[in-house]
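Hi Q.,

Before the meeting this afternoon, I wanted you to have the alpha-D-glucopyranuronic acid prediction in hand. No need to reply - just skim if you have a minute. The sequence and ligand are here:
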Amino acid sequence: MRSLVFLAAIGLTAAEDGLNAWLRYARIDGARGYHNKLPSAIVTLNATQGSPIQTAVNELVQGIDGIFGKKVAVTGADKRHRPMTAATVGTVHAFVDSNPGAANDLPELVEDGFYLKVSRGNVLILGQNERGTLYGAFHYLSLLAQGNVSDFSLASNPDAPIRWVNQWDNMQDGGTHGSVERGYGGDSIFFWDGKVREDLTRAAQYARLLASIGINAVVVNNVNADAKTLTEENMDGLARIADVFRPYGVQLGLSLNFASPQTLGGLPTFDPLDETVISWWRGITDSLYRRIPDMAGYLVKANSEGQPGPMTYNRTLADGANLFARALKPHGGIILFRAFVYDHRSLNQTLDWKADRANAAVHYFDGLDDQFDDNVVIQIKYGPIDFQVREPVSPLFAHLIKTGTAIELQISQEYLGQQAHLVYLAPMWKEILSFDLRVDDQPSPVSSILNGKRFGRKLGGYAGVANVGTNTTWLGSHLAMSNLYAYGRLAWGPASSLSAEGILQEWIKLTFSSDRKVLDVITRMSMASWPAYENYTGNLGIQTLTDILLGHYGPNPASQDGNPWGQWTRADADSIGMDRTVWNGTGFAGQYPPSLAAQYEKPDTTPDNLLLWFHHVPYTHRLRGSNKTVIQHFYDAHYAGSATAQTFPALWRSLRGRKGVDRERYEHVLFRLTYQAGHALVWRDSINTFYFNKSGIADELGRVNNNKYRIEAEDMQLDGYVPYAVSPFEAASGSRCVVTSRGNGTDARGEMRTVLPGWVKTGRYDVAVNYYDMAIGNSTWELWIDDRLVGNWKGDLEYILGKAPSPYIDGQTATRVTFEGVKIRKGSVLRIVGTPDGLEPAPVDYVSILPEGLSSGVKHFLIRRENIVLKSSVDGFTDSSCGSRASVLMF
Ligand code: GCU
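Predicted structure with the ligand bound:
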């Protein structure tokens, strides 16, 4: 039990579970003082029951009450009692109907846009359509919740019409009911047991959150779609989801399985040009629209990772996409057809230096640009491979000129720490969206391609793979929700003056509070998080280096090569990187418009952060920027990135008791940041050891494999424990750990003990234990110094973190617990007692006896930035029962 008794006494604000995310409408300081600047009534122009305008009104009533404690009355335009201040809410159309003279004073709005005017308590909230009105209301409330009650007027239009999220929810998947593929926040909020859930409360709450950030559609089921989604019963269920979305202006979209006419419909074929197939899809589509007249459309993954598609019948991808486009056309629906098309069975790197999965999208789509119907949009992942920590922008955006495109971003952090690591992604997305693809040597930022302006197209936009689940935090982590928020804000205005940091600060104010320290600390951690993660995972464009075969989570660089998935590094003893040049490599660089292609063709014009994406170079190759060798850059980056992560728990602790940081969320976040700090070290050591071993080149600073404060478990005196060779070897310090050897249960407990070495003088230390928490049992461990129990912990992370579970002793399960400020005497005996459980043999890798403060990175941090906040954060946390600091209890 990870209880935090010590928090009880320190007056944290009321517990929150995250369900309301940034829509908490929490009371702001000095609320009463603002009452006369707020409307006293809400005048509705054209609110019909269940419409987004009605929702806008309800939100305004609830929000103004929550934020300021002011009750506002709701009245129709005809019943308005003057001279009250009022918020007038409705569509432009309705407003002009009742105020014909006003038309000329109103700004131009596009679909979903809104106009907002605030003047001494009188507020005008007008939408271009009903949904736009709701967006305007949410925008006004957001400003109020951030303490902004000043007069202003604003016309806001979305940059692009498609602002969707994708959910990879399974109705039923091999016995896993309602799971979410690459989801780390619990089960599906839509499906259970092969059906649509009866209770769709969470679906409605989700729609509310999404509407507040301008998202207008949700594709509710996995791109690896199940044909059974289209049974009559399930279509009825989908209609119920659409019903709970509708008051929020959120439309329903559906992923389809290309082979459904055969697997569900019983036809002998699913050939897209076959008449019976065409009419089967038409029938299904009509039947869906009868139930859901405002359905947004379809999403299709075809001929990818084993999914069926038109190429099964030697038809083109355009034949496949148009099949759906034509069925949707009479209903006004659109089809998002994915560009994530590749054949993993054809990739064999050992035989072919020129094989490259990155080439696939352009390869398959080239020549088809003028063949897609006008309601087809090609949905393209931001990079040519798959949501890595750093990829160049997909060159396909520069190839489709006539066809609408949408960018696919991943809010769910599949390769980026699975919400167990804080990684704020808006800086990456901003970089991608502003990247200039130089089509025809003209300015061509990605966002201008998506909004259709660059090539004069109507349809385009954004698809964010969100994968929220039933966890009350939605994504499994409170801090990860900044990514969902930022996604919506960027999809609405990618090129707006709002920076990634500005968006983040809005989110912090809404989610926690406007307290300066809260803003400062969460901003600092979040803004440092993507660079840190890139540093401690995969640098220089080599990709994330996660275990590609299992889980996509922890380090396993060897798994990247010798597999059919094509996320290769081609690392050998001398050199590393994918040669994607035209002159000697896979030719991928040549897929970019000429000026970029020329830049990427040569190592000395390629940006350092993409060097290994485009080039195969010796480890001794020197970088343009720093003049460091590639290998030294790896070493340094991994030390730097993991050191940054060490500062996160202490930074967060400095927010204990601050406004908006309630006990429940404080505890939840601290636990994760502490875990992240430990796992960042696992990453650092795994990657550095792996490449040191591969290249044989030592770290110039002598750090790699030279861990001054470390005592290996296998070097201790073992009783009931035996050494175990870990695979991959780099996932264990010294390539071995220890595991219990006497089977199961309390009788099977084992012990390791050692007299602490001579360099451990009498004093206080941070004692860290690296161990493995596999998903096949809940072992327990105790750490003793002499006859004193320093602390104990349980291997149940699999129930706490939503990350992919692993049954192995590897980089996914390696983790660390730290006990701060532990009193040790010279010559003390350290013991760890481990009790196995299930199939988990209480594995331990090593123990570190660290000078106090080193584990939290606080000293390191204080040297680099004199931060007064931090000083207080490490003081005064003594827990009397074991004489160590509070974070002991966190783990
Ligand atoms: C990744 C991911 C899969 C997903 C696929 C896709 O490969 O790991 O789970 O199905 O992307 O986007 O289709």
